[in-house]
Amino acid sequence: MPGAAAALALFTAARLTGVALLALTAEVTGQQPLALLGRSWDSLWYLGIAAHGYGRTLHFAPDIVHSDLAFFPLYPALVRTVTTVTPLGGGAAGLVVSWTAAAVAAWGIYAVGRLLHGRAVATALVVLWGLLPHSIVLSMGYTEPVLTAFAAWALYAVLRGHWRWAGALAALAGLSRPNGFAVAAAVLVTAAWTVWRARGRVSHRLWTGVALAPLGWVSYVLWVGARTGDPLRGYFAVQRLWGSRFDFGRGSLGFVRRLLLHGDRMVFPMVLVIVAAAVVLYALLLADRAPLPLQVYAGVLLLIALGGSGFFESKPRFLLPAFPLLLPLAGALVRTARARPVHATVVVAALAGLSYAYGAYLVVLARTPL
């Protein structure tokens, strides 16, 4: 795809610079950079599933039980595949999967941006995604790069009318993360709108895509339910024992209230700013009349992040796959670059500095779950 190579080169340079600064910070503090990137927090759960399958449970209190059934299977399956066909260990294999997925995701984001607004906006979109405050996660052993890769190409397929590809990719996205259902939602809502406009006269390919789209997410949720003895509610019971549930934002609002009254750590105020910015960006996305699948996909991701309680510090990570939120900023950056190139350079440099410094702080110094 013309222009994609330049965008991918800029994205790679951005992420390598971030990793280099993290490595320097880790060395200064006596820590191992690769261990921090490949074996931090949830990465350890995924590596355990990749090595031993499901079955690990930690009991902290009667109402706090952490089970690995909360983690969707695609990423550990990919890690297991890499460790099987190469001499790499689990941590290194996880980084290979994440870094490869991040590159595929950046390519897909470029494809969506170019289809809608041309090369310049597409390149700016990729660069902005690589310079988000939490973009260090894209270089870690986490599942967000995998979800974003399948999501970007599924949305591209929907925009091009390739329904079977869209459905298959949405199914894989649904196997990668709990909020991967946002991709299926985008496919289903767009298909419904297409059927309504065409008064039911649509290709069988659309119906195939509709059937495939939710299959991955639904299959895993039902499998966990069957394993726990409650087919319909078992997975959600597992999540509740982790402290994660959808309560229409009640838990999040309570946390924000406590933060404003008593908060004194850098991470949580930063999370609050990022989530608030995401809400504003979604309003701008709607005002720009973005295509329906992008509105639905970003909206569902935002709804899950805002409406879910527990792990407030992880909400920016949950929003990393919501790259359509950056489309208004990408357009504005391109217009600024054409009118005032120096101003655009200053903006990008400031974003880069924030991304690199905050990423190193999060992983090396903050000791806060991502």
Automatic annotation (TrEMBL):
This protein's pathway: Glycolipid biosynthesis; glycosylphosphatidylinositol-anchor biosynthesis
Q: Give coiled-coil spans as residue ranges.
A: none
Gene Ontology cellular component?
membrane
User: NADP as a keyword?
Assistant: no
Assigned keywords, A-Z: Endoplasmic reticulum, Glycosyltransferase, GPI-anchor biosynthesis, Membrane, Signal, Transferase, Transmembrane, Transmembrane helix
What is the residue range of the signal peptide feature?
A: 1-22
Q: MF terms per GO, please?
A: alpha-1,6-mannosyltransferase activity; GPI mannosyltransferase activity
What InterPro entries does the database record attribute to this sequence? Answer: PIG-V/Gpi18
Where located?
Answer: Endoplasmic reticulum membrane
**Any one of the GO BP annotations:** GPI anchor biosynthetic process
Bilayer-spanning residue ranges:
92-113, 120-143, 163-194, 206-226, 266-287, 294-312, 318-334, 346-366
Name the UniProt record assigns to this protein: Glycosyltransferase RgtA/B/C/D-like domain-containing protein
The root-end lineage is:
Bacteria, Bacillati, Actinomycetota, Actinomycetes, Kitasatosporales
